[in-house]
Write a structure and sequence with these properties.
Number of strands: 15
Strand order of the largest sheet: 7-6-10-8-9
Order of helices and strands: HEEEEHEEEHEEHHEEEHEEE
CATH architecture of the largest domain: 2-Layer Sandwich
Helix content: 10-25%
CATH class of the largest domain: Alpha Beta
Length: about 260
């Protein structure tokens, strides 16, 4: 009697899952046949929706609910003469649909399961190996489950360096299935001309020309602080040349040009 109750409870939990979900590629399932423990199988549904099961081989389960899969396997076992009666139970151990995608400048971009124990934004960032050296401190989340999809952003640097613990907790939102976390490349600026280390550098809001030149190693012996220009794109996307002083503020993608001294 106790065994029957357990089987019924397991079947009920599977049916609850099946109300809104069907099996898909990547789902990890456990299939058991009552009274035949040697047939118990844990396997992933292939990308083409196939599941390999003992005795009957590959069967198409993609697009079927768990109860429908149970009935399919039971029928095959009986029709092909392996069992006279077959009571099959299918439990979804890990659903591919219950995943969060992490894209962009993280160490290990990809899809991660909510069922792995990760629940919050910070959990998934940590699971992906963290933000890479090229990654921005501003992280964007797309909530695809809403219509239309909702977009919101979190500035990690401001959050951890300037916000209260309570604000940090509030910003560590719970992820839901289908969410997309995107970490773009950090904004940059350029230092060219008579700098000791001309190149590309990470931009931070509020930076001045003096700070930009400092990042580039300072003005070379052939350069002058009096001949500094900034090449900046206007709203139409065209480059315009601006005269600048050391206290002038730069913006992302600015090109700081240090001129050669005349004598």
């Amino acid at each position: 009697m106790k065994r029957l109750i357990i089987v019924l409870l397991l079947s009920f939990s599977t049916a609850v899952f099946a109300i809104d979900n069907v099996l898909d590629g990547g789902d990890l399932v456990r299939v058991s046949v009552y009274g035949n423990p040697d047939l118990t199988t844990e396997a992933k549904v292939s990308a083409s929706g196939m599941l390999n099961f003992p005795l009957i081989g590959e069967i198409k389960v993609g697009g079927l609910s768990a109860p429908e899969t149970e009935q399919l396997i039971a029928n095959r076992l009986m029709i092909e003469g392996f069992l006279k009666q077959a009571q099959v139970n299918v439990i979804v151990l890990q659903s591919n649909s219950q995943q969060v995608s992490i894209l962009g400048q993280v160490m290990k971009p990809g899809k991660y399961s909510i069922e792995s124990g990760s629940k919050t934004l910070f959990d998934f960032i940590a699971l992906s190996g963290g933000v890479s050296a090229k990654g921005s401190s501003v992280i964007t989340i797309l909530r695809m489950a809403e219509t239309p999809p909702k977009r919101f952003s979190v500035n990690i640097d401001q959050l951890f360096l300037k916000s209260s613990v309570e604000v940090v907790k509030q910003s560590n939102i719970n992820m839901i299935a289908g969410d997309v976390i995107y970490v773009p490349e950090a904004p940059v600026f350029y230092v060219f001309g008579e700098a000791n280390r001309p190149g590309v550098y990470r931009y931070k809001p509020g930076m001045t020309v003096a700070q930009a030149i400092s990042a580039g190693g300072g003005v070379s012996v052939r350069g002058t602080e009096r001949g500094i220009d900034i090449d900046r794109r206007n709203k139409e996307g065209k480059l315009v040349k601006l005269s600048a002083s050391l206290s002038s503020e730069i913006v992302a993608d600015d090109v700081v040009m240090i001129q050669e001294r005349l004598f």
